[in-house]
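Subject: Sanity check before I submit

Could someone independently write out the structure tokens for this chain? I want to compare against mine line by line before I put it in a report. The sequence has 641 residues.
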Amino acid sequence: MFPNQTEETSHMAVSTIRNWWNERSHLICDSCLCSVTLNLSETLRTRQLLINFDGGRPVWSLRAPLDLVNFPSIPRPRWPIECEVVNDVIQHIEWDPPEPEPFYQPTGLERTPLQVGEEKGNLVYCIDHVTKQPYFTCSRVGGSKGPIKNATPYDNQTQFTLEFESRFESGNLQKAVQVGVYGYELTLRTDLYTTKHTQWFYFRVRNMKAGVTYRFTIVNLMKSSSLYSVGMRPLLYSERAAGENGVGWQRAGSNIRYYPNGNEDNNGDNIPLYSLSWTLQFPYDSDTCYLAHCYPYTYSHLQCYLRRVSSNPAVASYCKVRVLCHSLAGNAVYVLTITSLGVGKLEGRAKKAVVVTARVHPGETNGSWMMEGLLDFLLGDSDDAQLLRNTFVFKVVPMLNPDGVVVGNGRCSLAGRDLNRNYKTLLRDAFPCVWHTRNMVERLLAETEVVLYCDFHGHSRKNNVFMYGCNTRGNASLKLHERVFPLMMSKNACSKFSFKSCKFRVQKSKEGTGRIVMWRLGIKNSYTMEATFGGSTLGDRTGTHFTTRDLKSLGFCFCDTLLDYCDPNPSKIIYCLKELTALLRKQARERLGKDLGTDCRFSVSDLETSTSGSNSSDSDGPPVHLLNQPKTTIPQVWQLT
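---
Independent answer below. Compare away.
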């Protein structure tokens, strides 16, 4: 019986197929099977039914859903047609240091180098800023059709000159100027089709000398404050160290200084610029090394992970990998549905759902490492994982902005806009990733209750891990309940998660974020989980950087906390509610300067400051390609968003 058809309709379809076969069977030969199948599709007005032949007789089957992903091979990512992409395959081993890596301790003697610039320095690396078009037009696998240009002027090279490259997946470096023998001023590329958002960097270096102290200075950062000011170190990866000693990404660098450099961007926006300067010694001569802001996690890395998942028969029985939609460039946005089969109802009710997403901001790679930890837990064979799969339907979108990840953006998609300010949009074709995610959640809410939504992020100005939630006005009980899950997280990861850093304000400037939009759809527990780019200031991990293992452990902890939160025994929730009541009264006394009676009602929002998130007002509004059209052609639908 065909899906969604009555018995009468099914009989009609069978009769049509039988008549079709009787009329054409004598005409069929092996060379015309394709046309036979096409004729059948036209007769039935469906492409879902497939026909094969066994001994001259038809064998009918249903076509698998078009969005079901089997990964026979890893699709190569699609790039904007303007982007030059080198053919090198970039791979890094996963490794964690045997001991936590300490923060850099400033001495007070760190230098503030004077900027020399291209005019007085030696330009040794420069790539196009992809300004041939003011907005995204089309894409292809491998980017630009033309030959790869030489980004390193040969006449400017010496035996001491480092060789730079960033034209690979997630790479970001636009220009390098040699200043002195061992000093380099670096310029990062802004997010494609924007003039903003310089934070994420990831590039390759060759032709170095071991034991020599090099100085790198990034000269066009746009954030006024950074964790580099309080001990965060950049990351270094050596291919020789990886191959010979099994050592991967390490924190490296000394004489670290983050400071205003007195310059402004040259795009007419008069935005003050900042510099990050640090010194570094490479471990080997003539090595191939990489420098990065955070542990890279590329789109291809995700696809390899999902291929392993889908190729495991045991895991595939409770995890379906599908394509939610395609991005502007045509890269697949994957969604995983994780739940135990055959346990569709609990006590006569449909399973409740949990929605988790990550990488709406492509430069926040720590979100992907937390996501991988969560998936490792949910797809594992532990009793707790089995219990979660029996209890919930998990909808997981592990990479919301694959285009931004591929090209090395920090914050935006190829629409030149911050997707996490556009969850309310009606422009499906301009913002497909968030439009389809919201649509998926709306359909899910029509079927069952969504217990929790969480979007994984990275944070550049605070240490530790924490959550931003939503504060319900006028209902004191809900205000407390919205804080229970983050408080439980802090208890389960006491050396990494800071409840004190959690905020629950609903700010007007953040109305388009996933957290607030999902909350307004009716999901009471709606959060972003923010992991620092730096490390911890808590417990026995005080003053140490987070590793990929630490970040994955937060995904594990998220699952553990979900088990605690949904425990049929309410004792843990009751305990947390009592603790929250006492904590909020204490904060009120300290803030308001007076004691509050046990029955006194107070506004929790009055106790909180801003969430201190990134200001993305410059990334709001219509996508760039609409702004570049004549005003009369801008669709009326934008007025509704």
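---
OP: Matches mine. For the report I'm noting this point. The chain is about 25% helix and 20% strand.
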